[in-house]
């Protein structure tokens, strides 16, 4: 299904969105988990960025499988594929945590404004902020491992080949 766009593998295009959005999701989830000031304006945005990252992660995984059929299964490609299969689920988990945190935070604020509850966060919210930090760290580790294995799979052969007449500075 996901193979090429204008002759370029979709995976090579979409993976860049994942590489940019995953760290953004990590930073936003960390900030939302620990900063009241950040929560005040970013709850829905943290969840939306996480959802977008989840979408691109699933597309990257699917398009990576299509690309894998074209390039073959070396050990490096196999390692990258195995790590990459997990990434969309890690992102989805972090996004769900972000969404639940946002919901609980809004519910708590609404109850405090209406005089129905305390202004302080609930125990569940506090526990989920720790889960949010752990989810963010897990996502950071996973996206780093996937990205590193993908770079190794792509560039390992390039570094081992000698470039003939490649326009270097030492040419006259």
Automatic annotation (TrEMBL):
Keywords, ordered alphabetically: Membrane, Transmembrane, Transmembrane helix
Residues passing through the membrane, by range: 12-34, 41-60, 86-105, 125-146
InterPro entries: DUF2231_TM
Keyword Transmembrane helix: yes
Pfam families registered for this protein in UniProt: DUF2231
Domain DUF2231: 7-157
Key word ATP-binding present: no
Protein name, UniProt field: DUF2231 domain-containing protein
Species: Phycicoccus duodecadis
Record lineage: Bacteria, Bacillati, Actinomycetota, Actinomycetes, Micrococcales
